[in-house]
Structure formats: structure tokens, C-alpha cells
Amino acid sequence: MNVMKNIKIEKITLNVGAGKDQAVLEKGLKLIKHITGVDPIKTFTNKRIPTWGLRPGLPIGCKLTLRGAAAEELLGRMLKAKNNKLSNNHFDHQGNVSFGVHEYIEIPLVKYLPELGLMGLQVCATLERPGYRVKKRRLLQRKVSLKHVIKPQESIEFMKAKYGISVEED
Questions:
Q1: Which helix (H) or strand (E) holds 86?
Q2: What pLDDT does 41 receive?
């Protein structure tokens, strides 16, 4: 097999959306810190949406990005919270995986905290191959060739081989 076709996990992003509710935002910050031990950052609005009561600069959520071995270990735990079952809808056209965990107490090694109650979060795993650096480098930036982009079926096979998940048809 061509080594340039090997797939790896570039990063894992945990996200809690709170909307205008600042109490939910504070709980989300504590939740992500409780799960990973790393401080998350707040996300802010860029647009004004009067019907939702949003204005630029208002904090509406929090997120955390993990890379390397910590990301792989956390993804395994998050998949166990979903009983290692995902749907076809959880894979996008670039091969990335995104799913939600309804209650954080389903995640292995995470204890219930009474001040948080029951909350959920969104998990996004970004997959890449060697050679994806061409789209991120500063000089001579280029698009990744369509032959080299990870297709949904390839990412499903990678996740089955690495984490032993089962994929359900929708």
C-alpha cells in the first residue's frame, strides 16, 4: 500500500453551544475542563441576528481542540459513549467524523458533577493523509487533489479498523 494513502487523526474538537444563556456557557466550560483537564476557549458571535437576540462579540459557546495521542485516546472514549455505533450521516464528504454525546456521564472515566447536571457536547474528528500540508503551508498554498481527498467510505473503513465501530445505514 502507498504510504501517502495512510489516514490519521489530525485533531479532535469538542464543542458546547450555549446560545445567549451565560449559565449554560459556564457549565460548558466546566464540562470540557472536567472531561479533558484542559481549559477550553469561548466562541463569540460575528453577526447581528436580532430575532435571536445576538450581537457581535457576545459569547455563545466554548470549544477545545486536541491533537496527537491525547486526541486518539479521547476519540476512543467518546465512541464508547456512543456504544461504538455511528451512522452514515456522521461522515462528511472530506471524510471527517462528527457526532454528539447526549449526556457526558456516558463517557468512560467521567464522573457525574451535581453542579453541571446532565449536558451533552459535540465531537468532531478531522482526518488527514500525508501531503495535506500543501493546503496549510504559507508559501505556494494549493488545494489537495481530488484523488487524495479522503472519501466517506475510506474514513468509515479507517474508523472500523482503528476503533472497531459499526456503521448503520440511514
A1: strand 85-87
A2: 95
pLDDT tier, 1 (very low <50, low <70, confident <90, very high otherwise)? confident
Whether 75 and 108 have beta carbons less than 8 Å apart is answered as: no
Which alpha helices (H) appear in 82-164, and where do they start and end?
152-163
Question: Does the CA dihedral 132-155-68-5 come out positive or negative?
Answer: negative
Enter the pTM of the model.
0.87
Residue 136: count other Cβ atoms within 10 Å of its Cβ: 10
Rounded CA separation 68/91 (Å): 21
- Band (pLDDT 50/70/90 cuts) for residue 54 is confident
What is the DSSP track for 1-50? Answer: --GGG--EEEEEEEEEE-TT-HHHHHHHHHHHHHHHSS--EEEE--S-BG
Q: What is the pLDDT of residue 164?
A: 92
Amino acid letter, residue 7: I
Domains annotated for the chain, with CATH where assigned, are 3-168 (3.30.1440.10)
The closest alpha carbon to 100, from 82, 113, 118, 83, belongs to 82
